[in-house]
Amino acid sequence: xxxxxxxxxxxxxxxxLSTLSALVGMGFLLxxxxxxxxxxxxxxxxxxxxxxxxxxGNPDGGLKHALIGQLYLVGAATFIGVPLGIxxxxxxxxxxxxxxxxxxxxDISDIMMSAPxxxxxxxxxxxxxxxxxxxxxxxxxxxxxxxxxxxxxxxTDDMLQLVPSTLREAAFALGAPKYKVIxxxxxxxxxxxxxxGVLLGVARVxxxxxxxxxxSFNDNFLNTDMIKPMASLTVTMYNYATSPYEDWxxxxxxxxxxxxMFILILxxxxxxxxxxxxxx
Length: 280
Description:
The chain is mainly alpha-helical and 280 residues long. It is built from 11 helices and no strands.
């Protein structure tokens, strides 16, 4: 076998193995989604969106309390985390740049993105829940904010650095102050990428369960007071799915389907924005 033939053989072998690996991964993904869709759609009904939780054996039980609680928790985390993440990413890209402080913040953000969420939940429990003496919705939102923040920070930093420096120089040449250059030139050039980071950050925290077990805990009834323990779709799904009652297990499948579709849609929207930016 000549050297050229050997290279072609190795290339084809690697291509076949890579393709098979991708097909195996896609197969497992489709298997999971098909089981989720079959069981989730079968369990869906109008009562799930109109009624609160009910004791086992009650056919009118629903997930209204968990859905509204999830919106409160994720909404508060988004309200806090998105501005902080964008502003921090702006500092790193436009002010700190390659300074030691900026590089340290980037390293810490990378570490935080890979930190187990249950560790963050335990941390918030120690600094918020334990001093307060009880679980609360705010504690859950703080935990989700900590998880979301490094994702948005790093995405904003990376997207702003992709904006050509010539655009900044042209704006400065016209006499624009730095804050106007950032808000009216740099942000506009990176808005699709920043929005993608925000959507991916929200999608990440929307599926978290472990930190909420330590912080917001759960509630079987509708509660909109963030000072008190609050229901979430993820924890309710966990409790129902692991229960011995068939009607609660069906509600668990319905919760899993709703949550998965929400996260899937957010990820698809984020990818579409990213592809739109690349297309330009």
